[in-house]
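Q: Here's a chain of 308 amino acids. Please give me its 3D structure as tokens.
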Amino acid sequence: MTDKLTVSVLGTGIMGAAMARSLVRASHSVRAWNRTRKKAEPLAADGAEIAGSPAEAVRGADVVLTMLYDGAAVLDVMRQAAPGLSRGTVWVQSTTAGLEAVAELAALAGENGLVFYDAPVLGTRQPAEAGQLTVLAAGPAEGRATATPVFDAVGARTVWTGEDGAAGTATRLKLVANSWVLATTNAVGEVLALSKALDVDPQAFLEIIEGGPLDMGYLRAKAALILDGRLSPASFAVATAAKDARLIVEAGRLHGVRLDVAAAGADRLSRAAAQGHADEDMAAAYFASFDEGGGEGVRGGASGGERR
């Protein structure tokens, strides 16, 4: 089998579009589809073919890659794609969909004779654009020769978690990782909000932890987005982060674990989205600490300009 594949990418948001470009750079033939066509059309300049429907996109594809909003969206789109699917096609399911949804999607794959891979990714816009994601993958050994070139194109590393995609072992690991990412993101927003409320220069906080065990690159990266007002374009949007936070809370509930921090984080992200920050970087959860409009002014604040 040639390593050059025909790959259908369903969903061309922040991550899907970046993954499609990585696949084109790796010399795969890419067909892209998005519910809002204008979000897919820029990929034509990169060498992708833009399809008018999911069924058109998947017809004759070696691999179908789904990167949509949630499990319900994937289920809907793949049902639309069904008339164009061929038995034996590899389905790389990279949407963060949640545990219950993974089982439903694997069942749909079985109904259509597809080789199913539970394959969420770790990383945001920049590593996605660079083809440097970490792919978490679970699925049968016999289809990996086809799936692996796709993983190699979009990621710098693939971590195999099992051979049964329906078990959702890759999604389980993704939810654990995201629980840490979202807790940290929310903590960054709260420490800057408290700095503002107490009239403390946030740089004083960053200086006292510099180089010690409390310091971390992620804290500084997200703090800089807030302090410098660089929340757009998003690396990972507030609305999507809120969805993932809810999936994390639900996964804990299903397995008898109460995740108070994750639940509070989901509320913060949802509140920030309702305040108008849904499409901004998830660091904009910072604004949830204030009444609407009250978050401006942390050393210039998230809107830029000096207000101290």
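Q: Can you summarize the key feature?
A: The CA atoms of residues 2 and 112 lie 24 Å apart.
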